[in-house]
Amino acid sequence: MADSITIKAQCLCKEHMFSASLAESALPLRAVCCHCTSCRRVTGSLYSSCAPWPNPSEDLSGLDKYSYSRHTDIFFCGGCSSKLFCRVVSTLGPAVYVVTGALENTPGLVEYSSHMFVGDTVDGGASVWLPPAKRWNGGRGSQELSLESSPASKGLLSASPPAGARASPSATPFHCHCRGVHLSLRSAADLKADPAEVSTTSCINPQSLKFKASADSCDSCRLTFGSDVNAWAFAPLTHIGFDVAGNSSPGLPEFPRSLAALRGAVTATRNRDARLGTLAVYDSSPDVERYFCSRCAANVFYAVRDRDGMVDIAVGLLHHPNGARAEGLLAWSYGKVGWDVDAAGGWREGIVTSVKSLSSEWMTPVREGQHIG
Questions:
Q1: Sheet with 110-116, edge to edge strand ranges
Q2: How far apart are CA 122 and CA 176, in angstroms?
Q3: Which residue, 159, 174, 200, 264, shows the most beta carbons closer than 10 Å to its own?
Q4: DSSP string covering 238-302, please?
Q5: Are residues 134 and 178 in the same domain?
Q6: Does 112 share its domain with 199?
């Protein structure tokens, strides 16, 4: 049919590829962004985004399945951890949704229609950066939030620390949805940027002594997270621990302090440290390792072998009292999005442009002292 279009979804390793046809007039697909705590923990991103898949009877049996809730299952690639679909059972029957990060960047393919459970973020999370759409405090039909009345508005920044404040608290737990991975991140307050150590110069904001953090739109991260713009915090392995309170455990080995030690510990087949839980690793390129939960598929770490001693931590896993953006711990590079070239020319370009402009506009008057140079 002349007015028919085929859309495709795939995982990072390309082991799983799906396609479906729909009328071109049905575009753009209307995607819902969810900012709830559970979606942040099951992806590692600051939000999830899903749209109806045209084939409600799609065969998903080749994918790994995680029971996210009583009525919702998440389907992902067990090899590379890419989230692909969720199936929701309601009184109207089962419905299949595709995560938008798995879709191609065809112009006009997807449009964000609403933001749900913004209230869970405390600070507004990523909802204040993303393209304007209805913002709900909870589920659809709950209290509707304007930017001025949302938890993240300029007038309600009580959840965020003052500009120039040093990192706090001393330790922040982070975990995936199923809690198979449950670790802690000690603040950078005891560090200083050392030109001889890539693990500190790449990680630490020298003014605030907070860990640097940034948004990212690279294709590989998009496919593994399932979200279109994701966020990483950069931290030395010395500040990651097994104890969720950040304390040392006398008599027990520390969390691995080098990438080789981390990989060896995670892939060990004998005497594996049980505190590593469900942490698994996938080599997405010859020099890049992506760590994830093998049970619920949450992204955990990104590691590059020539940056020994440090990892990127998926910000959506952090459980910080200031909120989803963890501004008491992290110094954000507002106004910037890494690998924005990957979004150019397609429907994601507008999302990346929004994140750049709105994060810069919204935070500049209030957080100028925390920007990363």
A1: 64-67, 72-76, 83-90, 93-99, 48-52, 29-34, 110-116, 134-136, 144-145
A2: 19
A3: 174
A4: GGEESSTTS---TTSPPSPSSHHHHHHHHH-SSS--GGGTTEEEEEEETTEEEEEETTT--EEEE
A5: no
A6: no
**DSSP three-state, residue 318:** strand
> DSSP 3-state helix, strand, coil percentages of the chain (rounded to 5)?
20, 35, 45
Q: How far apart are CA 120 and CA 212, in angstroms?
A: 23
CA distances from 364 to 56, 64, 222 (A): 44, 43, 27
| Mean local confidence (pLDDT), 111-128 | 96
- Give residue-wise pLDDT tens across range 162-210: 555 556 778 999 999 999 999 999 999 888 767 777 677 889 998 888 9
Mark which of 145, 163, 181 sits at the end of a domain.
145
Residue 167 tokens, joined: 């990192």
Q: Which pTM does this prediction carry?
A: 0.92
Do residues 291 and 266 lie in contact, with contact meaning Cβ atoms separated by under 8 Å?
Answer: yes
